[in-house]
Amino acid sequence: MQISDELRQSVIRSLPELSEISDESLRNQVIDAWAYSLGHSSFKSIDEIRASGNPDTPKLKSGTQTDHIRGVTQLAIAIADSLANQFPKLPINRDMLVACALCHDVGKPFEFDPKNQERWRDNPAASGFPAIRHTQYGTHVCLTIGLPEEVCHAAGCHSGEGELVERSLHVTIVHHADYAFWASMKVGGQLAI
Ligand SMILES: [Fe+2]
Predict the structure, then answer these.
(1) Which pLDDT value is given to residue 1?
(2) How far is the CA of 52 from the centre of ligand 1 (A)?
């Protein structure tokens, strides 16, 4: 498996919240996951990816996919820290929570890739549309990198697919942070229609 150092540096530049992960090996796996995902797409940076939840849903008026990943991660940290402060028995592993938040959309480079979108739109009856969503591709990326199972669970189950299973505590927080992000931006007039 080849991951370029250039893409690793691009991920580090985009996501300052990586510093919130104290475990160096987990932090490096999160960087590798994004670098691997970008390396198998047309994108060279998370900043180049459309700032929307799905390729065809409204995007942020200003900002990029990086602002979404960072926003959700900061929201998830705020929720977790607040709850842990009030309820110390809540089993929150902060490193795991941050890794889950940073990786929840790690599959987007594949689903949002214009080449894949074009191929799927060309003949949906043959390919399915989309053939593979970011949740499924993100699970593949996390498994390939060898990230902990719960981070794979975050990539795969933060969205609608998670309604078919019982989400873990960290992924429940990430799911609500993700949905709160898009709902707040919509109601607050920050999405381009
Ligand atoms: Fe998201």
Answers:
(1) 72
(2) 8
